[in-house]
Every structure is written in structure tokens, then in C-alpha cells.
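Support request from a user on the community tier.

User writes: "When I paste my C-alpha cells into the form, the page sometimes reloads and wipes my input. The last time it worked, I copied everything first. Here is what I submitted, just in case something in the input itself triggers the reload:"
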């Protein structure tokens, strides 16, 4: 696991460099993308590069890492990716997939049909989750319906307006689905990420801290701003 500490803007530029390098070598690369606050500056950087003609997502295949259950359309991960990427880049709608149909096995089959994930781009939850693989999620989990913990629901108040409005369940790629990606990027910013970032890097690789499973794959790059790196 390679850890890079720099300001948030530089983290996103470097992460975008990795994505751009991959797509230049393999325009049809398969990307798993998280949503949320950590991803928004990265999506902004990707959109700028597409507008400048430096990057193309035209042939890329994108699989959303997560999707909420029973929530307004405008708050779904699908809507975020439509706003941030589909509307601002040359990414094609027909090349985007979302785990929202209640069939995890079908989603896994779609990933397998394109020979797996080339790159997974992840955020980091305050309780150490990635995707919505909450504490106690087993290593061998695949795409599944996940009950969100109280800690995660509090973390999502910024998106839904109140804890009561946060959906109780979400669909998420499983731990094993994600760690099988050929390359993994993790973005974590802010002082609230300092503890989970430390645990991701140094905790035992068991399900108590899901992100510690990211110690196992060989090709993982973690981007932290100074606040998120304060405890390492």
C-alpha cells in the first residue's frame, strides 16, 4: 500500500493522473467509482481534463460502487454520476452500470463479463467502511444489500438533510469484489478521516475495520490530505 500525503487539490490531480494514464493505455478500462464529498473534487478534475481534450472516457465502462435504497431520485448515486460525469464528459450512459435492481448476483455477472475491474476508486467511511461494507462485513462478500450503521447514517446527513431522511439500506459492491480490482485508489480528506485512515493502514485485516482489508491487495494507492494523515 502506497500512501501519499498532500493538499486535497494535489491529491485529486495525482489520482486523476493515474486514471488518465490507465485510460491512455486501455481506453476500454473498467472503473468502479464511489460517490460523495471525497469524489466531487476528483470528478471536477476529470471533467476539466475532458473539456481540455486531455482525457477521454468515451470507451470506459463505469460501475457505481454503491446505490441507496428507497431514496429520492436526485439523491441517488446514479444522479450524482449523471451530474458530475455524464453531463460533463464524453462518458456514455450505456457504459454505466448501477447496483440498484436488487440483484447482486446479476451485478457481479456484469462485472465478470467485462473481465473484472481495472480500477476501483474509493472513499473512506468514518467507521472504516469502504463502499458500504460496514464493520463485520466478511472478506468474501460480493455485491449485496447492506443495512447502514448509525455512524454511517450520521455521516450522510450532509447529503440527505437529516439522519431520519438517510435510507436504512444501500446496495454495495462487496469486499472481495473491490479487492480483486487490478488497481485501487483511496481518497480521504479532513480530520474526521484521521482515525479510519490510521486503522486502514495499521489495524488487523479483519472485518472489525473493513478498510484494513485494503492492506491485502498489492496495487493500492492512498491519497490523504494533512488533516486525514494526522495520526499516521
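"...and here is what came back when it finally went through:"
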Amino acid at each position: 500500500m502506497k500512501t501519499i500525503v498532500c493538499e486535497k487539490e494535489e491529491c485529486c490531480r495525482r489520482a486523476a493522473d493515474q486514471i488518465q494514464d490507465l485510460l491512455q493505455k486501455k481506453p476500454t478500462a473498467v472503473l468502479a467509482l464511489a460517490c460523495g464529498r471525497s469524489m466531487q473534487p476528483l470528478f471536477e478534475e476529470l471533467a476539466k481534463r475532458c473539456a481540455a481534450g486531455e482525457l477521454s472516457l468515451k470507451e470506459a465502462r463505469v460501475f457505481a460502487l454503491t446505490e441507496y435504497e428507497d431514496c429520492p431520485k436526485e439523491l441517488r448515486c446514479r444522479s450524482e454520476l449523471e451530474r458530475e460525469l455524464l453531463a460533463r464528459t464524453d462518458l456514455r450512459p450505456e457504459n454505466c452500470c448501477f447496483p440498484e435492481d436488487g440483484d447482486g448476483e446479476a451485478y457481479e455477472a456484469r462485472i465478470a463479463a467485462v473481465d473484472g475491474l481495472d480500477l476501483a476508486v474509493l472513499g473512506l467511511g468514518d467507521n472504516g467502511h469502504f463502499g458500504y461494507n460496514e464493520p463485520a462485513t466478511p472478506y468474501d462478500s460480493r455485491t449485496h444489500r447492506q443495512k447502514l450503521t448509525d455512524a454511517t447514517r450520521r455521516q450522510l446527513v450532509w447529503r440527505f438533510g437529516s439522519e431520519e431522511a438517510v435510507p436504512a439500506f444501500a446496495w454495495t459492491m462487496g469486499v472481495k469484489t473491490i479487492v480483486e480490482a487490478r488497481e485501487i485508489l483511496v481518497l480521504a480528506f479532513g480530520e474526521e478521516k484521521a482515525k479510519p485512515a490510521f486503522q486502514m493502514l495499521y489495524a488487523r485485516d479483519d472485518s472489525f475495520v473493513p478498510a484494513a482489508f485494503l492492506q491485502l491487495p498489492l496495487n493500492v494507492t492512498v491519497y490523504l490530505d494533512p488533516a486525514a494523515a494526522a495520526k499516521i
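Agent notes: The reload is a front-end session timeout and is unrelated to the input. The radius of gyration is 16 Å. The chain has a mean pLDDT of 95. Escalated to web team.
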